[in-house]
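We were asked to recover a plausible sequence for a given structure. The inputs and outputs are reproduced exactly as logged, with field labels preserved.

PROBLEM: sequence recovery
POSITIONS: 289
GIVEN STRUCTURE:
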């Protein structure tokens, strides 16, 4: 049961990342964030009311507010990176922070990494260096793409650490995620307003009609992300957390396969090796937790 739900988490996170990156190639990245998170907030609101999650409200929700402030910036950087560079490189690098940052928080709190985690850190760093595709021959991944990806990875890791502090039960988790999504929409909406005032259009060519055609895909991104959080919570509560974390961290494979199959994306051998090492490093970090 744990393996099944954890793999479902990987599938949904991977497809949501692929969809977000694909939409950002033709829509304003902030528009993708705001609309998808608004739809996710609607779904979470229904879940919170249905499960009585409002009774879980307390001071710990300030951690969810903080996650909601950090989240839009991380998503914006990640979607831009997915739109600019090869998804097979960006997605594995973006997954590192979801394990590395919580681990760093634990180290600050007095925990010490085990052998697997130390090995994972080394492997992940080597993967990051190789994934950029050093200019041995041919084109490398743009520095901007790598920087955006690593910033998003740190942001996603911070969000995971903050959400972990915001809830201790499944119903509390959904309430924390609901609060986070509301803050995502507020912060992302404010940023979108500023960019529009500066002359960047919020809507694609064709206006609302063109955006309306993308609503099913935007809804899928938001709802898949919510569902993945739910399946991960179930996986972690019904079996070894280590197994759940490791299998859930495989979502970059889904993104890379989707890019390979649907976009016919190709990477140089050194980029493939780097992305693979980054993924292996993430798995080792999760396995040692």
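RECOVERED SEQUENCE:
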């Amino acid at each position: 049961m744990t393996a099944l739900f954890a793999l479902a988490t990987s599938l949904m996170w991977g497809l949501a990342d692929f969809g977000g990156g694909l939409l950002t190639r033709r829509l304003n990245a902030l528009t993708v964030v705001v609309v998808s998170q608004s739809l996710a907030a609607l779904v979470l609101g229904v879940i919170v009311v249905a499960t009585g999650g409002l009774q879980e409200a307390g001071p710990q929700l300030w951690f969810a507010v903080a996650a909601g402030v950090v989240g839009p910036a991380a998503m914006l950087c990640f979607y831009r990176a997915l739109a600019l560079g090869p998804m097979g490189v960006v997605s594995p690098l973006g997954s590192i922070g979801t394990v590395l940052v919580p681990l760093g928080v634990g180290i600050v709190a007095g925990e010490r990494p085990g052998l697997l985690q130390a090995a994972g850190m080394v492997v992940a760093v080597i993967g990051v260096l190789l994934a950029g595709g050093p200019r041995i021959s041919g084109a490398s991944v743009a520095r901007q793409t790598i920087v955006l990806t690593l910033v998003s990875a740190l942001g996603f890791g911070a969000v995971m650490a903050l959400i972990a502090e915001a809830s201790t039960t499944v119903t509390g988790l959904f309430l924390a995620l609901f609060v986070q999504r509301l803050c995502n929409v507020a912060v992302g909406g404010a940023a979108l307003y500023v960019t529009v005032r500066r002359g960047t259009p919020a809507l694609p060519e064709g206006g609302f009609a063109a955006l309306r055609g993308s609503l099913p895909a935007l809804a899928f991104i938001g709802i898949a992300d919510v569902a993945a959080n739910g399946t991960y919570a179930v996986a972690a509560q019904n079996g070894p957390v280590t197994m759940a974390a490791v299998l859930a961290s495989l979502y970059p494979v889904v993104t890379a396969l989707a890019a390979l199959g649907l976009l016919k994306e190709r990477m140089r051998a050194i980029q493939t090796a780097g992305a693979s090492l980054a993924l292996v490093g993430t798995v080792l970090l999760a396995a040692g937790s």
